[in-house]
Automatic annotation (TrEMBL):
Residues 124-225 form the Phosphatidic acid phosphatase type 2/haloperoxidase domain. PANTHER family: AT30094P, SPHINGOSINE-1-PHOSPHATE PHOSPHOHYDROLASE. It holds the Pfam family PAP2. It comes from the Bacteria. Gene3D superfamilies: Phosphatidic acid phosphatase type 2/haloperoxidase (1.20.144.10). This is Membrane-associated phospholipid phosphatase. It comes from Sporocytophaga myxococcoides.
């Protein structure tokens, strides 16, 4: 009889560990389905998350490098000359504040009860990681390239830090709300594009700076998400079979 009880416990344990122990992600059918789709796509390298995440940043940074100063079919000098013709006396500081508009959009959507992909703790951590990466990338590249701004104010032109910041924030909005609607991301990227336009109209940056800045901003957010393996603050619940003095039972475990 004892052998039968131990056998039942062994089978019961396997079933519980494979089917009942779960985190909040597995409780949510929508997130589970998304994870299954991602796992399926990761079987082929050109459908992997890393490859897809690198496409847009690589193109934008490549375009930025190819148009530095007087290089390319439509160079940074050509773009500046056209800007000065169209907006000869245009000056504004709206771009100094508009870089944080995507984050304001994220807060507003949460206040309107539009649920993020991640919870508050993990979204906050992703924002912090993104900010660290984008600032480390942009400022290090600025000092390495040492390119003069179009207004000759200093030699920290490439890439545009404002544009990088705006596109990093826009990418976070896109990744957090794209499962609800793609239009949230479209709105955020429109704001980020406006920041790049204002930086050129203010004669603070070349076209190459803005293109590369957008690439570095998107890349920073993508790196933050790709390296965010732990889900802090997630609850894990589990049913564990017990056997004591010949009696079988079940204990419930909730881990924060």
């Amino acid at each position: 009889m004892k052998q039968l009880n131990f056998l039942l416990i062994f089978i019961f344990t396997i079933q519980l560990q494979t089917g009942i122990c779960q985190t909040n992600d597995s409780i949510n059918p929508e997130i589970t389905k998304i994870n299954e789709i991602k796992d399926h796509q990761n079987k082929k390298w050109y459908k992997s998350r890393v490859f897809k995440a690198a496409i847009a940043p690589t193109i934008l940074i490549g375009l930025g490098v190819s148009t530095i100063q007087n290089h390319g079919i439509y160079s940074s000098y050509d773009a500046r000359n056209d800007m000065q013709k169209l907006f000869p006396s245009f000056r504004t500081r709206v771009d100094d504040y508009l870089i944080f508009a995507p984050y304001a959009q994220l807060v507003a959507l949460n206040l309107l009860k539009v649920k993020c992909q991640n919870d508050f703790i993990n979204t906050a951590l992703l924002i912090v990681k993104t900010e660290i990466i984008v600032n480390a990338l942009t400022f290090s590249v600025k000092y390495i390239t040492h390119i003069q701004r179009p207004d000759s104010s200093d030699f920290k032109s490439f890439p545009s830090g404002h544009t990088a910041q705006a596109f990093a924030a826009a990418t976070i909005v896109h990744k957090e709300f794209r499962y609800k609607s793609q239009w949230y991301g479209v709105g955020a990227y429109t704001i980020a594009t406006a920041v790049g336009f204002f930086r050129m109209a203010n004669n603070k940056h070349w076209l190459s700076d803005v293109l590369a800045g957008a690439g570095f901003g998107i890349l920073s957010a993508q790196i933050a998400y790709l390296t965010h393996q732990n889900r802090w603050g997630r609850k894990t619940q589990c049913l564990i079979p017990t056997y004591y003095n010949g009696a079988m039972g079940v204990s419930y475990q909730l881990t924060f």
